[in-house]
Design a protein that fits this description.
By secondary structure, the chain is α+β, with helices and mostly antiparallel strands. It has one domain. Helix 2 packs across helix 3.
C-alpha cells in the first residue's frame, strides 16, 4: 500500500494541489475529488554564501498548511547537496540582532501616550528515462532521498513508485530543472500528534550545502491558487537572512522585479558571526572573515513566478535599520505618577474615615 504522502516543491517554495494516493487509484490518475491541498505558508530561511568557494549553505525553517496527515516535498539544487541537521537557535538570534531600537522620547503636552513603529552514495548520470538515487539518509527528522532524473516523466514515475503524490503541475515545474542538470532532494514529513487536528505543520530545520555559481532561492511555483483558496491561505511572509561578505540584493527578471525589500542590513561583529555559525553547527572558519547580514522581507504572492530568485552584490553598501519603536515619557505632570498613586493609597483611607465621622456624628 502506498504511503499517504503529498508533494510540494521546491526549495522553500513551489506549491501544487496535492493528490492523495490510495490503492484504488490507477497508475497515472489525475487529481481526484478526494485530493487534499498542501501549500507553503510563512517561511524563514538562512542563506550563507561563500563567494570564494562558490558554496551556499541553505537552512530552512518552513511551515505548511495542509489537511493531510503526512506529505512530502521536493527541493531542487544546482548540484548534489550535503544534508545535515541544523539548529533552530540561529533564527531567533538573528531576529534579535535585527529588531528595531527602542527609543524613549518626551510625550507631547496633553498627557501620557504610547506609540510604536512598524547513506549510500553513487556517481554517474541517470540512464535514459530513469532516476538515480544519489543518497538516502535520515536527517533532522526527515527521510531524505537525493535524486538525479533523466526526464520529468522519470521523476514523476519515481515519485509515484515511492509513495509520493504527483500532478501535471509538478511535471511542468520540474522540466527546466531536469534539463539544466539540477538535483532533487525528496523529503518526507509527517504531522506530530499535537498537529493532527490542525492545518498548520512545522518542519525541523535542515541544512543543505551545495556548489553554485550564484547564490539563489528557487522561487518558481506551479499554480497553487485553487489549493490556497481551499485552505483559506491568503497571505504569507518570506523572510531571508542572507549572510555574505557584503550587502546583497535579490532579482527575478528585469521585466518582473522581486517584491522583496531590505528590512535590515549591516556588518556583524566577530562575536555575533561566531555565535551564528556555532548555532548553525558550521565550523568557525566558514565563509569570509567579516560577515554582512542582509534581511529581506517578501509578502510572497500565491502566483506563478517568472524565474528563480538570484542574489548579487548590491551597489548600495550602506546599512539599513528598522524604524525605531518610540516609547513616550510624560513630562506634563508636576509629580511622578507612581508617587501620587502611592500617596493616595496611604493618605486616602484616613481622610475617608474623617469625612464619614463628620457626616455621621
Amino acid at each position: 500500500m502506498a504511503a499517504r504522502l503529498w508533494l510540494i516543491a521546491p526549495l522553500a517554495g513551489t506549491l501544487l494541489l496535492a493528490v492523495r494516493l490510495t490503492p484504488s487509484l490507477p497508475a497515472c490518475a489525475p487529481c481526484p475529488p478526494s485530493g487534499k491541498p498542501v501549500v507553503n505558508a510563512d517561511q524563514t530561511v538562512i542563506i550563507l554564501w561563500d563567494k570564494d568557494k562558490k558554496t551556499q549553505h541553505f537552512i530552512r525553517q518552513a511551515s505548511f498548511k495542509s489537511e493531510a496527515d503526512d506529505f512530502g516535498f521536493l527541493v531542487p539544487s544546482p548540484s548534489q547537496p550535503e544534508l545535515s541537521e541544523s539548529g533552530n537557535a540561529a533564527f531567533p538570534y538573528l531576529q534579535k540582532l535585527t529588531e528595531p531600537e527602542v527609543q524613549k522620547q518626551r510625550a507631547p503636552s496633553g498627557g501620557l501616550s504610547c506609540g510604536c513603529g512598524g547513506v549510500s552514495k553513487y556517481s554517474g548520470r541517470a540512464a535514459p528515462n530513469a532516476v538515480r538515487v544519489l543518497e538516502e539518509k535520515l536527517v533532522a527528522g526527515f527521510k531524505a532521498s537525493v535524486l538525479e532524473a533523466s526526464s520529468a516523466d522519470a521523476l514523476v514515475n519515481w515519485l509515484k513508485e515511492n509513495g509520493y503524490a504527483f500532478s501535471p503541475e509538478v511535471q511542468t515545474w520540474a522540466k527546466p530543472y531536469v534539463e539544466a542538470g539540477w538535483k532533487f532532494t525528496a523529503l518526507k514529513v509527517a504531522k506530530g500528534k499535537d498537529e493532527q487536528a490542525s492545518k498548520d505543520v512545522s518542519a525541523s530545520a535542515l541544512r543543505m550545502t551545495f556548489k553554485t555559481d550564484r547564490p539563489l532561492f528557487p522561487y518558481r511555483e506551479p499554480d497553487a491558487k485553487s489549493a490556497a483558496e481551499a485552505l483559506n491561505a491568503k497571505h504569507r511572509l518570506l523572510r531571508i537572512y542572507f549572510l555574505a561578505e557584503a550587502r546583497y540584493q535579490g532579482e527575478l527578471t528585469r521585466q518582473t522585479p522581486w517584491t522583496g525589500r531590505v528590512a535590515w542590513a549591516n556588518k556583524l561583529t566577530p562575536a555575533d558571526s561566531a555565535k551564528t555559525l556555532a548555532m548553525l553547527k558550521l565550523p568557525e572558519t566558514t565563509g569570509p572573515a567579516e560577515w554582512w547580514l542582509t534581511e529581506f522581507e517578501d509578502n510572497w504572492p500565491y502566483r506563478v513566478a517568472p524565474a528563480d530568485l538570484y542574489f548579487s552584490r548590491s551597489d548600495d553598501q550602506g546599512p539599513v535599520k528598522r524604524p525605531p519603536i518610540i516609547e513616550y515619557v510624560s513630562t506634563s505632570w508636576p509629580f511622578d505618577v507612581t508617587a501620587i498613586a502611592l500617596a493616595a493609597v496611604v493618605v486616602g483611607p484616613p481622610l475617608l474615615r474623617r469625612v464619614r465621622r463628620r457626616l455621621n456624628p
